[in-house]
C-alpha cells in the first residue's frame, strides 16, 4: 500500500500546493488560467471528442479545435519543464466521415513547442460493429514533453519478456542472456486492459457495465491506463493534473502510486463519484483492475466462443480465418 493511502488523504476543492487530492468543479479554461506556471509534472487527459455525449454540446470540428487549442495553450504553461502531456483521443465522426483527432491535435501541440515522444496505440478487441467501414479497434495517446530533459522511468513499467531465457547467439556477448531481468519495454502498442472484456458484448474503450471500475460516466478511463503513464513519467509526490477529470480515474491512479492528483470537471455529479471512489480507495473497497494483471485468454470452450447451432444449419457458412478462429462468410 502506498504511504499516502496509509494516512488519510488531504482533499481540497481548490488548488493549493499542500493537498494530495484536488477536485475542482469549474470550467477548464477559467480554472487553468488561475493556476501557477509549471505546476504539474504530468498532464494526462481524455478531452471531450465533440461527439454530442451527455456532457458536451457538439459543434463544428474547427470551432471545437479552436477551443481545445486555447485549453492546450494553458496546459503547456502549466506543464513543468521536465514534464509531459499525454492526450488520449479517438475519432470525431460526422455524417459517416471519420476525422482521427490525433492528426488534428499534433500540429496544435507542435506549434506550442511540445515534442512528441510516442504515439501510443491503445488497442481493444471489442466494440461497436461498423457496417459501412471497418470496425474501429484502437484509440491513440499522444505523449509530448516540454523539453528534452524529461522524466522517463522505464524500469517502473517494464513488462515480462516473452523469451527471458534468450541469449546472444554471436559476437562478443555470445552465450550471455540478451534480455533485461526486469522485463522488456512495453512498446507503443498497448493492448492492456482491453482483452479482459472477453464476453464480446462490451463497447470498449469505455469502461463498461461488467468492468470492476464502472461508474455512471459514459466514457471513463480505466485506472490501469493512466497508471502506466504516472509510473513512467512522474516521481513520488509529483502533481498529476487531469483537466477533464470526470469521475477521477487519473486522480486515483496518482494517489494509488504516492503522487498528488488534481482533476477539473464542470459536472458536479461526476465529481461526486470521484469523491466516493477516492473514499472507497482509502478504505480498501474500491474495485480496481490491478496494473499488469494477465489478460484473460478464452479457451474456446465458452458458450459465446462456439458457432451457434442456428448458423451451422443456415445458409451462412462458418469459415476458419487464417489464425484458425471461427468467422462467418457473407
Ligand atoms: C472524456 S470525459 C473524461 C473522463 C475521464 N477521463 C474519466 O476517467 O472519468 C471528458 C470530461 O470533460 C468534461 N468537460 C467537458 N467540457 C468541459 C469544460 N468546459 N470544463 C470542464 N470540464 C469539461 C466532461 O464533463 C467529461 O467528464
Strand-helix topology:
Elements: H1 3-6, E1 11-12, E2 21-25, H2 28-33, E3 40-45, H3 61-78, E4 79-89, E5 91-94, E6 97-100, H4 101-111, E7 115-123, E8 138-145, E9 189-190, H5 223-233, E10 239-242, H6 249-256, E11 260-265, H7 268-282, H8 309-313, E12 318-320, E13 326-328
Parallel strand pairs: 1-2, 2-11, 3-4, 3-10, 7-9, 10-11
Antiparallel strand pairs: 4-8, 5-6, 7-8, 12-13
Helix content: 10-25%
For the termini, the CA-CA separation is 52 Å
**Order of strands across the widest beta sheet?**
1-2-11-10-3-4-8-7-9
**CATH homology-level superfamily:** Vaccinia Virus protein VP39
Mean pLDDT, to the nearest integer, reads 84
Estimate what percentage of residues fall within beta strands: 15-25%
The number of domains is 1
Flag low-confidence runs.
Answer: 194-206, 321-330
Q: What is the general shape?
A: globular
Work out the radius of gyration.
22 Å
Main sheet overview = 9 strands, mixed
Instruction: Give the beta-strand count.
Output: 13
Amino acid at each position: 500500500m502506498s504511504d499516502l493511502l496509509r494516512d488519510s488523504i488531504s482533499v481540497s476543492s481548490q488548488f493549493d500546493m499542500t493537498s494530495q487530492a484536488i477536485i475542482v468543479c469549474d470550467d477548464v479554461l477559467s480554472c487553468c488560467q488561475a493556476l501557477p506556471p509549471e505546476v504539474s509534472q504530468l498532464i494526462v487527459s481524455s478531452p471531450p471528442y465533440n461527439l454530442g455525449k451527455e456532457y458536451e454540446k457538439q459543434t463544428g470540428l474547427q470551432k471545437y479545435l479552436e477551443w481545445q487549442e486555447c485549453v492546450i495553450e494553458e496546459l503547456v504553461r502549466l506543464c513543468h519543464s521536465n514534464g509531459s502531456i499525454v492526450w488520449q483521443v479517438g475519432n470525431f465522426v460526422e455524417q459517416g466521415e471519420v476525422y482521427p483527432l490525433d492528426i488534428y491535435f499534433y500540429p496544435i501541440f507542435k506549434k506550442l513547442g511540445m515534442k512528441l515522444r510516442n504515439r501510443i496505440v491503445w488497442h481493444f478487441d471489442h466494440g461497436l460493429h461498423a457496417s459501412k467501414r471497418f470496425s474501429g479497434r484502437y484509440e491513440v495517446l499522444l505523449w509530448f514533453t516540454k523539453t528534452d530533459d524529461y522524466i522517463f522511468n522505464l524500469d517502473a513499467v517494464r513488462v515480462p519478456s516473452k523469451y527471458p531465457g534468450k541469449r546472444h547467439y554471436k559476437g562478443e556477448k555470445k552465450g550471455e542472456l540478451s534480455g533485461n531481468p526486469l522485463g522488456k519495454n512495453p512498446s507503443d502498442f498497448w493492448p492492456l486492459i482491453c482483452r479482459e472484456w472477453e464476453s464480446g458484448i462490451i463497447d470498449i474503450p469505455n469502461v463498461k457495465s461488467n468492468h470492476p471500475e464502472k461508474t455512471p460516466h459514459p466514457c471513463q478511463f480505466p485506472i490501469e491506463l493512466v497508471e502506466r503513464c504516472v509510473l513512467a513519467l512522474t516521481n513520488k509526490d509529483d502533481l498529476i493534473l487531469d483537466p477533464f477529470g470526470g469521475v477521477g480515474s487519473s486522480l486515483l491512479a496518482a494517489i494509488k502510486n504516492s503522487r498528488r492528483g488534481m482533476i477539473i470537471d464542470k459536472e458536479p455529479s461526476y465529481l461526486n463519484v470521484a469523491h466516493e471512489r477516492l473514499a472507497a480507495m482509502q478504505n480498501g473497497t474500491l474495485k480496481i483492475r490491478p496494473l499488469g494483471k494477465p489478460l484473460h485468454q478464452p479457451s474456446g470452450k465458452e458458450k459465446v466462443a462456439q458457432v451457434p447451432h442456428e448458423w451451422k444449419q443456415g445458409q451462412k457458412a462458418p469459415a476458419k480465418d487464417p489464425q484458425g478462429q471461427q468467422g462467418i462468410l457473407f
